[in-house]
Amino acid sequence: MRLELPPERRLPNPEWMVERILTERSATAGAPPAARTWWLSGLVAAAVLITAAVIGWAALVPTGRPQVGAAPETAAATAGPSRLGSPTAGPSEVSPAPTSAATGPEKPATVPPTTLVPVPTRAASTATEPKSSAAGPETSAASPTPSPAETSTEERSAEPPLTTTVPIGVRVQAPYLDLTASGTMTGGDVYAILVETCVRSLPPNASSELPLSRTSWTLSTSAGTVTTDAPITDPITLPSAYPGEGRYGIGDCATGWIPFAVTPDTAVLAISYRDSLGANVKWNPNT
Amino acid sequence: MTALRGRVSQVVEVNVGTAGGGESDAELWHRLRSADEDAFRDLFLRHSTAVYNFCFRRTASWSVAEDATQATFASLWRRASGGDIDPLKLESARPALLTMARNECSNANRSRNRHLQLVDRVRAESGESVDNTAAWVEAESTMALIRQALAVLPANQRDVVELVAWSGLSLADVATALKISVGTVKSRLSRARARLARSELAGLLENHNEA
């Protein structure tokens, strides 16, 4: 009897498997691989030294600064109306909290986290930080806020930004931004996504507003990456379009639908947001 | 006017043979070394089925092959994330991936519930009849017989048979992947053929890609 090799089979659910690999790796990104251990150790050591130095300095040099949580000492944060240049974003209902912005340079609390934090909620983002109007006089001399699409941040340019993949509908805290992809529509050669980008804080050298662009959003498909540049031939009607470009202050949001040109047989594997400020987030639209 | 409809839940079938077909493996591999997710996806969609079938032929189990395929690519992505991937020495990434898969197949954990998992996965696949389970099990039985017959060969000759005769790699690619000379690949293959010339496996040692 002569044996024959059994016929080949296709791998079941390849899209599911590849996303699972990427998701599991992102979820364990907090556990550093061996190659990164050395600089993480250095980072921890530096943080400990800085903390010790700050504590020592505070103990030696008495200051008249109020304690954290004390009554507001400045009227810089006024409850004025939100500045909105966005054609789609409605006025943010921001209740500015007292701020100590007058104390000088950006405080560590304004430095964004280096990790991306998924926030499991579909609720519209609520601004929890004060508008940056108080910082205006101090930062106005700085160079214009770098666009996320054109800036290179010194600290992050040395390595690729951390990536996270989450199910659609999950709100993610990226550096400076809160990002949400919450819906999809498809028809013909169009795949549209409903997204929201909210400015949570500003980079240290930024002015009071951050430019946002729809080009930061892309689709990862089985045929490759699809950008917003691809022309859409079929006329479509979207409930509300995401703005092409705009400048946004803290608490402001850009919201709306972004259409992409895709071929009908293309599988959309992920909705991606990426900018040079460190955000690199993917949503799985198939969850 | 194109009418849009909301939220598609149906997973679109992807053609794994041509997915991401625009870029060469070398280009994708280069991007993968910078932990590029899209490059990883494209490489996965391009080669995962080959790895899957290669693992099946080494393990005689679709379930273990699936696990080993996932382990192979998870290992690749882990190394990419850690900046620990060597440059691609060949035009195709397949020899390197199959070499990696060799180790993962050996390490694959054979679950006690493998058969049940197999049935579950068949049922879970849309459009596939449960009747296919019989074909799957038959394929596993046949492959187990082949493995049994192949066991008379030393491991290094089995490797060459699996990579050259069954996976269609060239002698040069196998030599590079296994870090041995082309002459050694040829001699192992010819010794394997001589050994199995009168066995039921004789027809399985034909090599269609001995360039």
Description of the molecule:
The complex is a heterodimer of chains A (about 290) and B (about 210). Chain A is of the alpha+beta class. Chain A has a domain at about 115-285: Immunoglobulin-like (Sandwich), CATH 2.60.40.1240. In chain A, a hairpin with a 2-residue loop joins strand 7 and strand 8. In chain A, the strands form three sheets. In chain A, strands 1-3-4-5-10 form a five-stranded antiparallel sheet, with no helix packed on it. Chain A has a five-stranded mixed sheet with strand order 2-12-11-7-8, covered by helices on one side. Chain A contains three helices and twelve strands; from the N terminus they run H-H-E-H-E-E-E-E-E-E-E-E-E-E-E. In chain A, about 15% of the residues lie in helices and about 25% in strands. Chain A has helices at about 15-25, 35-60, 135-140, and strands at about 115-120, 165, 170-175, 175-185, 190-200, 210-215, 215-220, 225, 245-250, 255-260, 270-275, 280-285. Chain B is mostly helical. Chain B has two domains: about 20-125, RNA polymerase sigma factor, region 2, helix turn helix motif (Rna Polymerase Sigma Factor, Chain: A); about 150-210, Arc Repressor Mutant, subunit A (Orthogonal Bundle). Chain B contains nine helices and one strand. In chain B, helix 2 packs across helix 4 (about 95-105) and helix 7 packs across helix 9. Mean pLDDT of chain B is about 80; it is low at about 10-20, about 110-120 and about 120-130. The chains are: A alpha+beta (about 290), B mainly alpha (about 210). Chains A and B meet through helix 1, helix 2, strand 4 and strand 11 of A and strand 1, helix 2, helix 3 and helix 6 of B.
